[in-house]
């Protein structure tokens, strides 16, 4: 069987790379750590990979703005390589700091590398949040997510408020680029804190690009691929639901999509 | 030429809600206006949410600008330089700061130790300077008074020690260099040499063994799990499958008292480095934070001069843990707060860290002749000079002005990449030993590593933050985020390649040479030459007098009894609200939500669980190897109030509380190791007597449980003196940390009640003084009971007593409880006791046969906490009182 090769991109301050590696491995992917310097000096190349995954963390300390410095680095040195990877059918996922980076490169939401159309602003709460929230996926352009899902996800960020001008938000909604929203107990998108932990417009938690091959999201699916990663795994009412940890499907769907595509 | 870019939020909600408006200012030196425009647009601002100006004011109002003092490291600068360079723009220098719009109503807007109000535009951001010359100190001709004068404020050595040094140089027929004196002062400082713990103790006229020897001798009797104890930067114990786990806890009190943000940050950074610099390198997997402070609402008039308000300290230490721990990606999963007004001058900031490493790389290799030392990570600056000697001295109102350089600001990312490089190099077998550059800087780290072979150092090679440092300053600087790697020269090239990949600067600085001397050069000039034997063996053992604590000080009124029991529901509810809202007991959830506790994906029991994830847990359970079920359990216990009252009983209580937290989640106490930290007032005979009985308590505790202390630290400077004669002693504190292993994290339990109608059991002997004979049996029963899977929930009784434990379990379960107990038992803080939830009474009888236990009642659907015959309290109301105090300080948009 063919391997699905995943490039876990590291830079100064990446810190969710191990759990992301583990998540891809668990669903049968073949992840490898690649430092951005190795792409810059061309000792390694994206052409050897099927999936490019940008993990969470504080790339370059999130100085100036979250993901900003890494975004500039990617645009300055890897623009052609990323364009080629994209047009060659590669999939890209950015989680938390990875999402912030993708938005600041312009890859999300409209695939305009080098032009920012949206941003991830400071949380309305005014500070970093580490908590669990409910997330629901919806029918979107995203090519690899098969079904709609609802589940518990961890959020760990200070700058996660998805924001843009109303006209841009409308365009994102009209093109079905919203993949995930923060929802309340009954499953409806919410602006209430802390269910919506950052005040994102229209409760947007994750988006794709017009090709549907790039996914960016603030919550961390890779932090719930084993049952014991969820704080309440001991509570009986949840044991049933946890036969499949809630974050796992994203990695399964991605890896399976690549396999079917090959 | 410097261009200024100003950036502010564009009418966002945040700006309106802010108590004050601020504008970010970037200064960019050595580039054209066109390039400044490019940087402003592409890097420094985002049009969607921000407004921006170049070389002109952004707001109409008057502003004041607060910037880091020149020379204080601003972590953002390297990112600005990098982004500019990636865009092909060559900056000469950069800086960032804030303009605050006047008028502002904000206390403590900045800390004058690290920041200043910028009134004059700087001509350049480049710090220039000519290195000072190495001075010869005319020590040989000094009299006693003169010796003490140069020791004060700088060397912190006593008369006898100064004389030993004088004699050494008399024998050599020369005077020392400033660098040599500094080397001796920091190597012989209390911080590095633990002179009190190694001293001969004369207690009430009778000689007793040194404190350290008592601890070590007892600990090594229980060596089943010990991989290394008392020899490395952290204690190491056995784990599973060829892995070992290590742990360390360390205070950073002195710097935190005067600059809490920088102090607590570098406290975190330092203890993380200790864990990573164990053996040939470990991965840090979890951290703990313990703070002892004065009540944040304390009357500010009571603050001694030269000290900071406790609410400011509280906010800043929390911000530091958040900013350092979150950025470096080490989860903060366990901690506590303890309030006592006598902490107002010298608070306790105690950070713990735990790691994992291959067992066969858990020992440091001994440097061989020809091996080299490479410094990696941050550059060396003037920051942190005299940290080791400073933290060993008493604090006074002169501390802030004299020791300004002892405070540093941390850069978590620099430390993170350094760790990344070390772990890759370790796995490629390139490293002989890793040493942390902490207290005492190069002097301490290189000296210690070269003690056996001897070492030659070339200080001029050390990468500097700015020019102008004298050789002795480079030598003892405690600049953060630096590590020393010892390796064979054959491995150097491969090692440098790894460093380059991670953007880590690496420079060879010393060579181990077989001379058995410490020889330090600055270029061709020899600036220091000391015999290793004298440096590490010359310090005279202290003989210290101690007076044993008077028996009457062992108070009978040892627990939190209210003097009169309330008579009705209302009276009880008031008392409960008061207890639950008190500093040591109230909910810290608002704080914990600021800390990342599931980065690395390893948490199997976070700080809060339950239906609404607001029920506090007892210990952290970490699954450090994602693909294995093995658990690392981490907990701690301390009670400054109790050790103040009775240093022996308080110590036993603290240690029992620590191991009970560990046992409450299902840990097997026999598979645990201990870390002890002593934070004590300056050891005069009275305080030393109390310290002596505290150490005896720790030894007795090890004896009773047959488990060892394998690491620890003492900080014996919790005394403050002001110029007008005010002396303030912080409460003496023994903080016990516990870490251990469990083969399957699924065999652990949480504190939230799981069901309605299940049985609530009290397990353990309700004794005001802990019965060390019964304790191991109770702990064993708890482990076995939880291991059967029949315990639905379990929580340890600690501050706030039995009723608080049950209350917190109800919070987690969104349920109530109906119990039957005597009124006097409700608030008893009996360590070594547990509240346990089981299905029914038969299960309780089966699980706890043979040890003290009793059935208290049942869980209820009705969300009320009721005690038969006494009161019935609404959970919502109690919960409001419990969560309010910290929410007011740290909640939404605070």
Automatic annotation (TrEMBL), chain A:
<comment type="subunit">
    <text>Part of the FGAM synthase complex composed of 1 PurL, 1 PurQ and 2 PurS subunits.</text>
</comment>
<dbReference type="GO" id="GO:0005524">
    <property type="term" value="F:ATP binding"/>
</dbReference>
<keyword id="KW-0547">Nucleotide-binding</keyword>
<dbReference type="GO" id="GO:0006189">
    <property type="term" value="P:'de novo' IMP biosynthetic process"/>
</dbReference>
<dbReference type="GO" id="GO:0004642">
    <property type="term" value="F:phosphoribosylformylglycinamidine synthase activity"/>
</dbReference>
<feature type="active site">
    <location>
        <position position="220"/>
    </location>
</feature>
<keyword id="KW-0067">ATP-binding</keyword>
<dbReference type="GO" id="GO:0004359">
    <property type="term" value="F:glutaminase activity"/>
</dbReference>
<comment type="pathway">
    <text>Purine metabolism; IMP biosynthesis via de novo pathway; 5-amino-1-(5-phospho-D-ribosyl)imidazole from N(2)-formyl-N(1)-(5-phospho-D-ribosyl)glycinamide: step 1/2.</text>
</comment>
<keyword id="KW-0963">Cytoplasm</keyword>
<protein>
    <recommendedName>
        <fullName>Phosphoribosylformylglycinamidine synthase subunit PurQ</fullName>
        <ecNumber>6.3.5.3</ecNumber>
        <ecNumber>3.5.1.2</ecNumber>
    </recommendedName>
</protein>
<dbReference type="InterPro" id="IPR029062">
    <property type="entry name" value="Class_I_gatase-like"/>
</dbReference>
<dbReference type="GO" id="GO:0005737">
    <property type="term" value="C:cytoplasm"/>
</dbReference>
<comment type="function">
    <text>Part of the phosphoribosylformylglycinamidine synthase complex involved in the purines biosynthetic pathway. Catalyzes the ATP-dependent conversion of formylglycinamide ribonucleotide (FGAR) and glutamine to yield formylglycinamidine ribonucleotide (FGAM) and glutamate. The FGAM synthase complex is composed of three subunits. PurQ produces an ammonia molecule by converting glutamine to glutamate. PurL transfers the ammonia molecule to FGAR to form FGAM in an ATP-dependent manner.</text>
</comment>
<feature type="active site">
    <location>
        <position position="222"/>
    </location>
</feature>
<keyword id="KW-0658">Purine biosynthesis</keyword>
<keyword id="KW-0378">Hydrolase</keyword>
<keyword id="KW-0436">Ligase</keyword>
<dbReference type="InterPro" id="IPR010075">
    <property type="entry name" value="PRibForGlyAmidine_synth_PurQ"/>
</dbReference>
<dbReference type="Pfam" id="PF13507">
    <property type="entry name" value="GATase_5"/>
</dbReference>
<keyword id="KW-0315">Glutamine amidotransferase</keyword>
<feature type="active site" description="Nucleophile">
    <location>
        <position position="96"/>
    </location>
</feature>
UniProtKB/TrEMBL annotation, chain B:
<keyword id="KW-0963">Cytoplasm</keyword>
<feature type="binding site">
    <location>
        <position position="250"/>
    </location>
    <ligand>
        <name>Mg(2+) 1</name>
    </ligand>
</feature>
<keyword id="KW-0436">Ligase</keyword>
<dbReference type="InterPro" id="IPR016188">
    <property type="entry name" value="PurM-like_N"/>
</dbReference>
<keyword id="KW-0479">Metal-binding</keyword>
<keyword id="KW-0067">ATP-binding</keyword>
<feature type="binding site">
    <location>
        <position position="274"/>
    </location>
    <ligand>
        <name>Mg(2+) 2</name>
    </ligand>
</feature>
<protein>
    <recommendedName>
        <fullName>Phosphoribosylformylglycinamidine synthase subunit PurL</fullName>
        <ecNumber>6.3.5.3</ecNumber>
    </recommendedName>
</protein>
<dbReference type="Pfam" id="PF18072">
    <property type="entry name" value="FGAR-AT_linker"/>
</dbReference>
<dbReference type="GO" id="GO:0005524">
    <property type="term" value="F:ATP binding"/>
</dbReference>
<comment type="pathway">
    <text>Purine metabolism; IMP biosynthesis via de novo pathway; 5-amino-1-(5-phospho-D-ribosyl)imidazole from N(2)-formyl-N(1)-(5-phospho-D-ribosyl)glycinamide: step 1/2.</text>
</comment>
<feature type="binding site">
    <location>
        <position position="436"/>
    </location>
    <ligand>
        <name>Mg(2+) 2</name>
    </ligand>
</feature>
<feature type="binding site">
    <location>
        <position position="712"/>
    </location>
    <ligand>
        <name>ATP</name>
    </ligand>
</feature>
<feature type="binding site">
    <location>
        <position position="715"/>
    </location>
    <ligand>
        <name>substrate</name>
    </ligand>
</feature>
<feature type="domain" description="Phosphoribosylformylglycinamidine synthase linker">
    <location>
        <begin position="152"/>
        <end position="195"/>
    </location>
</feature>
<dbReference type="InterPro" id="IPR036921">
    <property type="entry name" value="PurM-like_N_sf"/>
</dbReference>
<dbReference type="GO" id="GO:0004642">
    <property type="term" value="F:phosphoribosylformylglycinamidine synthase activity"/>
</dbReference>
<feature type="binding site">
    <location>
        <position position="248"/>
    </location>
    <ligand>
        <name>ATP</name>
    </ligand>
</feature>
<keyword id="KW-0460">Magnesium</keyword>
<dbReference type="GO" id="GO:0000287">
    <property type="term" value="F:magnesium ion binding"/>
</dbReference>
<comment type="similarity">
    <text>Belongs to the FGAMS family.</text>
</comment>
<dbReference type="InterPro" id="IPR041609">
    <property type="entry name" value="PurL_linker"/>
</dbReference>
